[in-house]
Amino acid sequence: MKRKKQSVQSIKTVFTKSQDYKRICYENKITKLTFTLTFLTTVTDEKIVRDHILPFLLENEWTKLEDVKSILPIEDLQLTDDTSQIEKKLLNGFVMLTLEKEQQYCFISAKKENIRNITVPEVEFSVIGPKEAFVESLSENLNLIRKRLQVKELIVEQLEVGTLSKTNIVLLYLDGITNEANINTMRQRIKDLEVDHIADSSYIVQMISDNQNSPFPQFLDTERPDRVAATLSEGKVVLLVDGSPHAIIGPVTIVEFFSAFEDYFLNWILASFFRLIRFFAVAFSVLVTPIYVATLTYHYELIPQDLIGILVTSRRAVPFPPIIEALFLELTIELLREAGARLPTKVGQTIGIVGGIVIGTASVEAGLTSNVLLIFVALAALASFTTPVYRIGNTIRLLRFPFLLVGDIWGLIGISLCFSFLLTHMIRLTSLGRPYLEPIYPPRLQDFKDAFIRLPFYKQSKRPNQLRTKKASRFDRKNVIKKVKKDIDE
Questions:
Q1: Cα 111 to chain centroid, rounded
Q2: Which of 84, 155, 209, 436 has a CB 3.0–4.6 Å from the CB of 429, allowing a cystine?
Q3: Which long-range contacts (CB under 8 A, 24 or more apart) does 389-392 make?
Q4: 322-342 vs 268-297: helix axis angle to the nearest 10?
Q5: CA–CA dist 322, 298 (Å, integer)
Q6: Is 38 exposed, middle or buried (0-12, 13-18, 19+ CB in 10 A)?
Q7: Could you tell me which residues come within 8 angstroms of residue 53 by beta carbon, excluding any fewer than 6 positions away?
Q8: How far, in whole angstroms, is CA 176 from its chain's centroid?
Q9: How many CB atoms are closer than 10 A to CB 321?
Q10: What percentage of the chain has pLDDT greater than the value 90?
């Protein structure tokens, strides 16, 4: 008993150093019983204390802590004699009710909730489809998912990470569909984390990735609850982090980073066409500048005769070799992009447009770059924006530079070697232990139905082979495909 008093006293000693710590004594009007309320004003809603706790404790008859359950109109009320719970409960917005004669503690929920309103997705905006995005509140995010998957099989597991932040993390999956190996792997990686503070889900993504030294994202983060519900129904595992408006999805493949969720709201022909444009745009963004440098440096005989005159005319005033010219423009584009992203919205847009026009025109007139390369670099930058996932867009921006350097050193052979190294790295890469390059490698024809093109929904009756789900079939295809009877006049 003595140890308990010492531990409580030590906790009080630490809390009294904070200005938001309140410990107030009151007396019941009927029984003249003296009780104490202890709470932190920064995490506790004082209106709840003033309107829903204090009046009932002052004006109703009660003599012990067990009587409080029948007096207060608050469901979340806990009695305990465990002193280790005091610090946790106070920091989570609970009010501690104590009596001098009793060694128990009554914790009453009065948490202050500052929730941002649900808004339109900013990163994954779509013209067609739902217009709801996650917020920083874990309970609100779970509500957005629950109303889209109203089944008892949706399992919610709560974990805690961070010795200082005590961040709540929720693991979501569908019981009876999701592979147990994927669930156990994700759960174990979260439990093995040893870190003091978690500020956002991005911290978790970096720490639980299969290869933390790879520039490729191995988990898909999204701000769309409809996308989370769709991936859960496929058999994937989802993580929600308290305080973060982004969900983490795994395992994933490289193809999924080039698939916008709006593709599923369009006709399959249009969706497939737009998806192929994205793949072409990414390849163009990575390779066009390195091929330009390699061709002008080593392989000028590959240039058609009709284009040689144009290139010679555009570069006759440029005193630098193609690699210096290309690096200057590429770094200029990156500087403009970073400046536009870090400045306020209206100023950033102005800097991006005006800066690009002024610097591009001035560099050509000054003879620092050729107008042909300026067009290629501008198109490459524009093509990199077609990626629907922000993280893979950053990877594409980075990949251009090693291709550019090897193109200048070894020409087209260097570009081929760099591509071979990149392909080898991607083949070895995994997401939650699953192949990252699937369905390309290992080749799985069934999963091509939603890879480079999106086939109609009635042809997607099976879940992806990569996930190894407990229930492979999504629906009975025979009930979807029905023969259309001809009209009487046909």
A1: 27
A2: 436
A3: 389/124, 389/217, 389/220, 389/257, 389/258, 390/123, 391/217, 391/221, 391/257, 392/216, 392/217, 392/257, 392/258
A4: 140
A5: 11
A6: buried
A7: 37, 72, 74, 95, 108, 110
A8: 25
A9: 12
A10: 48
CB–CB of 108/53 below 8 Å? yes
- Spatial strand order in the sheet of 94-99: 21-27, 34-40, 94-99, 105-109, 77-80
Per-residue pLDDT tens digits for 15-34: 888 888 999 999 888 888 89
Closest of 9, 6, 33 to residue 23, by C-alpha: 9
Neighbouring-strand partners of residue 24: 37
Distance CA(91)–CA(43), nearest Å, equals 7
Token duo for residue 48 = 């709840």
Q: Between 101 and 18, whose confidence is greater?
A: 18
- In whole angstroms, give the CA distance from residue 124 to residue 260: 8
CA 384 from chain centre, in angstroms, equals 19
Q: How many CB atoms lie within 10 A of CB 50?
A: 11
Rounded Cα distance, 96 and 477, in Å: 58
Rounded CA separation 205/212 (Å):
9
What is the token pair recorded at 327? 């690096």
Q: Is-contact 176 153, C-beta < 8 A?
A: yes
The DSSP secondary-structure symbol of 53 reads I
Token pair belonging to 155: 């399992």
Cα angle, residue 446 at apex, residues 261 and 458 outer, rounded to 5°: 60
Describe the crossing of helices 371-384 and 390-410 by its angle, rounded to 10 degrees.
150
Specify the pTM: 0.85
Question: 355 with 330: CB under 8 angstroms?
Answer: no
**Residue 294 CB burial class (10 angstroms; 0-12, 13-18, ≥19):** buried
